[in-house]
Fold:
Amino acid sequence: MDEFLDPVLSSRRTSEEPTRGLLPLTTEQQEFALHWTNVIRKSNSEMAYQFVSHAPKAIRLMGIDGTRQWLLDAMDIYDKEGLYPGSASLDALESFAAKYRLSHISVSLDQIRGVLETFICGLAGRILKLEAGNSIYTDTNTLYLPASINRFNDREKNYQLFKATAVHLWAQTWFGTFKRPSPNAPHLVQQIAEFPDNGRALKLFNLLETVRLNACIRRELPGLAREMLTLNPPIPVNDATWQHYFSLLESEGASVADTLAATEKLYALQTPWPDAFLYQAGFDLEAAQIGIEQRLEQEKLELQMLISDMMEQVGQDQEFDPESMEDGKLEMSQDPETGSPQLTLDGEPIQPPPDVDSLLQSMLQDLDDLPEDWLVPAGDGGYRPKDESRNPEDVWKGTYHEEGAFLYDEWDYRRQTFRKNWCVLREMPTHPVYDDFYQKTIERYYHLVGEIRRHFEALRGEDKILKAEPVGDNVDIDALITAYADMQTGVEMSDRLFTRKQKIDRDLAVVFMVDVSGSTKGWINDAERESLILLCEALEILGDQYAIYGFSGMTRNRCEVYKIKAFDQAYDNEVRARISGLRPQDYTRMGVTIRHLTSILNQVEAKTRILITLSDGKPDDYDGYRGDYGIEDTRQALLEARNTGIHPFCITIDTEAGEYLPHMYGPASYVVIDEVRKLPLKVADIYRKLTT
Structure:
């Protein structure tokens, strides 16, 4: 204990007290406490001291499994928020123990996030993120839900309550809780502020709006509404005034304006209010206002750019000048039955492209109607959201923040758990360099290019021999011998005695993950770029789907991938120039990149999906991501990729790779290359093994 806690011990604070606390425990419990004290002190010695001081009581309350979970939750908080919140979490032992005793019936958001996100996405409308929050509300972009629910002594009912709560938050965005007639109309926060007691008014509005949303859900999702009734039966309402307004809000044409009107009428009454619904969500009106304003501003600019493109196309078809709105006035109306947007140009209906239609539908969730000046094409130099208003490279300058970044977990093998949302990754642009690198590479490997093309032409035209077929081109000797033997023993002879050739239909998608860390400086970087040129030339012959990304970064807060070629991009001069522009960067944090590229690869429809890493060494980063830690996280990320059906493979020029790559990739999933001219032929072999 002295060795483990030495940095935080002093003449006043010794290891005697925590050691004395461990003495009554069993040998197994003592070893458990000592093991985790050693693991934690590598992150922070103070956290280790706090843990071992509380460990005896934790073990008595929850046993070893519960104590481990309590510790890992506290370390997650330490990772995200620092020492004092982490220590406070360890101090809250009894509170955690009370929740742990209910864990067999509790449902956590982490457990059901994937299912619930898919369900909410299927309800239509915008894609909404799900996050754990201290209160239940939506800012119209994210649904903030409890971290866990244990309201019922039944796990299934607790899951249903989670789902019902999420649906009500979605309903606020879909059925117009925050909807306004026009951009200049007051927000809900301003309307509630007019009441003398804002808190009381908001509470009443929430109850009444839940009644309206319940009725909307009953009409559109009757099955879910019946499920919700089992959680919360209808509220008995005896007062005639309340009954009147409940009936009004449950009518088909009711809107949020009716809810506000009912709130104004019932606010002055002194009669008791009905009870709130179990699944009733709350409000953060300021957050919703900010979310709506920011989104509408972005969507307005994007809409005007899309209209500009659409009008240009209409102009080509109808000899219309898209730069002059006098030549063609664009107007929008809504279908009275479906509410979907309809566009007319000079009074004639036109079919909007899918991206314009989906954008209009999103905007109509926030506004009853769009102003005329929003339905005009953008002028020259207009804003294009696809290019992002903020240069990704500028994000790293000054104070760092996570806006617009991807957050990924990282595996800590010492704790045997994930550090949640630990790595911050951004997709960065690769600056093209229009020089003669491509031409020089083709000229330098002129004879090799011809050989590669022959190899890949053969691969593209490869036939597969099917055996034991009822008809075919040749006799299957093995099948004939088996059939003859069957006949001799009195078994009926099979008629499947032939072989035939069948053309292989290639259905393949591959991502090349290229290490551009600082260690690739010099000839290694040149070799990588030459390899990519030769690979692209070969893959263009095959016609397979492929993408190329570089990766590097510095610490968990600055992980970067560099898009060289996406799946939907053609191999053209710009891609060649990006390959030429690849330059060595910083460090090699591989796990987060594998997780990011796995998510990209899993969005591609293909029978076979391959992730090929081109690297010069083992995982390594400035903040301690090296040795066993980096190797184990990378291995875990590769296992996650395999579990989704992806085939990882590594091509390396590290002559010492045999020490760690078999553990990370498996003994048959890597190759060591010492000459760039061998690389394309090896890739052809990999393709042949994985696709035949």
Observations:
- The two ends are 58 Å apart (CA to CA).
- Residues 611 and 648 are 5 Å apart (CA to CA).
